[in-house]
Amino acid sequence: MSMSFFIRLNISSFLYALFPFAGIELMANVYRLSRVTGWGLDHVNVVILVFSFVGLLLSGFGFPKLIRHWLGGRKTSFFSLLLWIPYFMILTSIVAAWFPIIDPADKPNL
Q1: What is the signed CA dihedral for 22, 26, 29, 32, rounded to 10 degrees?
Q2: What are the b/e assignments for 59-94, b being 16+ CB within 10 Å?
Q3: Which residues are within 8 A (CB) of 13 and not within 5 positions of it... i.e. 6 or more apart?
Q4: Which 8-state DSSP code applies to residue 58?
Q5: Which residue from 48, 58, 69, 80 has the fewest beta carbons nearer than 10 Å?
Q6: Is-contact 31 105, C-beta < 8 A?
Q7: What's the predicted TM-score (pTM) here?
Q8: pLDDT value of residue 32
């Protein structure tokens, strides 16, 4: 496995983790986004819906085409199906560390 393939494999895994991470974080931080931007909850929900729809289209149609082109149909490209999990966990821990919930009203309803 060459170094350029290894780098492309990790970039593709990061891309696979990016849209689920962004969608989950946006849905979990609706109140915080509303408070910080000054938008109403309806407006924030519409923005999140649009972002989720675009992310679904990209991750469903755009990324597989890009991954086939980048990774060339090798069998080792299936490792990206497992490698997105560590990237997802790293992104989640970075956001939790850098943007802690200070205002109790920002906690997501569980």
Answers
A1: 110
A2: beeebeeebeebbeeeeebebbeebbeebbeebeee
A3: 79, 80, 83, 84, 87
A4: I
A5: 69
A6: yes
A7: 0.78
A8: 86
